[in-house]
Amino acid sequence: MSRVCQITGQKTSSGCTVSHSKRQVKRQVFSNLQSKRLLNPATGRMMRLTVSTSALKTLAKWQRAGKKYDLSKLIKN
Predict the structure, then answer these.
(1) From CA 14, how far away is CA 72, in angstroms rounded?
(2) Strand residues in the chain grouped as ranges (E)
(3) Could you give the angle at the alpha carbon of 76 between the alpha carbons of 72 and 77, nearest 5°?
């Protein structure tokens, strides 16, 4: 499973772990990705996507508001 959100494009970033003595060591910061089966409201079919939790919250908000969207058009290549 690649560590990239298929909707927002979020991916692993890099940073530093800084100790008390200000010594810096490189580290990776992973985004919170989940593999989910989501219903595409435009077609009525289930799709398996790797999405970030922030994208899941946005999709839930759109669902509550009744916004029309197509998951297949939101997927970034």
Answers:
(1) 30
(2) 13-18, 24-29, 33-40, 45-52
(3) 105
CA–CA separation, 63 vs 71, rounded Å? 12
Task: Give me the DSSP letters along 61-75.
Answer: HHHHHT----HHHH-
| Angstrom distance (rounded) from CA 39 to CA 15 | 35
Q: 30-52, pLDDT tens digit by residue?
A: 999 999 999 999 999 999 999 99
Q: How confident is the model at residue 55 (pLDDT cuts 50, 70, 90)?
A: very high
What is the phi-psi region of residue 74: left when phi exceeds 0, alpha when psi lies from -120 to 50, beta otherwise? alpha
